[in-house]
Amino acid sequence: MSALFDVAKETILITGASQGLGRQFARVLAGHGAAVVLAARQVVKLKSLEDEIRGKGGRAAAVQMDVTDTASIAKAIDAAEAALGPVTVLINNAGIAVEKLAVEQTEADWDAVIGANLKGAYFAATEVARRMIARKQEGNIVNIASVLGVSVMKFLSPYTISKAGIVQATKAMALELAGNNIRVNALAPGYIDTEMNHEFWATPGGERLIKRIPQRRVGAESDLDGAILLLASQASRYMTGSVITVDGGFLLT
């Protein structure tokens, strides 16, 4: 691996690390030498990942974090920094979706999705940024957005609204934090095959959706490896406020 994409000196906190993209990011970054803090609500799920990374000679620590609770965020970062040292990179990946038509979404649905995806990411970022500023430390925040932050699909209105908010939060924070030597960028994945949606791709609806992707395939989790290494490393040192799309051409249609 080129020194350009080196993350060996980084301590990277990944929210929503217990499954899907968060788990893949943790594996890739740890595999390239980063110390990774695995954060999620369910620590039990994180433990096996922590053991797996350590078993391969990597550095990992699991911490319990509920991004919808700002006190929980601060407590988790305290634990993370006690275990592995100051966090230098935050990957804001935790998120959920509730699939219903807008007229059927309840206030509780809205609060859950916006709370986890937008409020949670915003307050995790500001908590980490305050610590970086206090230490006069260079820092890097990567928000996981979505192609649905700039495009829309039926049945996912709170989700698409939350991801559009993430795109704007990325730009707003990038502008404010640039003077503190803290970069803020976003990764906007398209449709990625994860354990949560794996069955869907074999259904008629899934097959129809794949036909709308110019590359005619759904992405694999590993298709995001290059982009996350770019954003988490010094290779992206002159990037801030950027949104990188990895979607097989989905947005072109």
Protein model, in words:
Helix 3 (70-84) crosses helix 4. This protein has helices at residues 20-31, 43-55, 70-84, 107-134, 157-177, 204-211, 225-232, and strands at residues 11-15, 35-40, 59-64, 89-92, 139-144, 182-189, 192-193, 219-220, 243-246. The protein has seven helices and nine strands; from the N terminus they run E-H-E-H-E-H-E-H-E-H-E-E-H-E-H-E. The strands form two sheets. Strands 3-2-1-4-5-6-9 form a seven-stranded parallel β-sheet, sandwiched between helices. Strands 7-8 form a two-stranded parallel ribbon. With 253 residues, the protein is an alpha/beta fold. The mean pLDDT is 97. It has one domain (3-245): NAD(P)-binding Rossmann-like Domain (Rossmann fold), CATH 3.40.50.720. The protein starts with 10 loop residues before the first strand and ends in a 7-residue tail after the last strand.
Can you tag this structure with a few keywords?
single chain, 253 residues, alpha/beta, Rossmann fold, 7-stranded parallel sheet, two-stranded parallel ribbon, 7 helices, 9 strands, 42% helix, globular
Brief sketch in words of this structure:
With 253 residues, the protein is of the alpha/beta class. It contains 7 helices and 9 strands, in the order E-H-E-H-E-H-E-H-E-H-E-E-H-E-H-E.
Helix and strand arrangement:
Elements: E1 11-15, H1 20-31, E2 35-40, H2 43-55, E3 59-64, H3 70-84, E4 89-92, H4 107-134, E5 139-144, H5 157-177, E6 182-189, E7 192-193, H6 204-211, E8 219-220, H7 225-232, E9 243-246
Parallel strand pairs: 1-2, 1-4, 2-3, 4-5, 5-6, 6-9, 7-8
Helix pairs in contact: 1-7, 3-4, 4-5
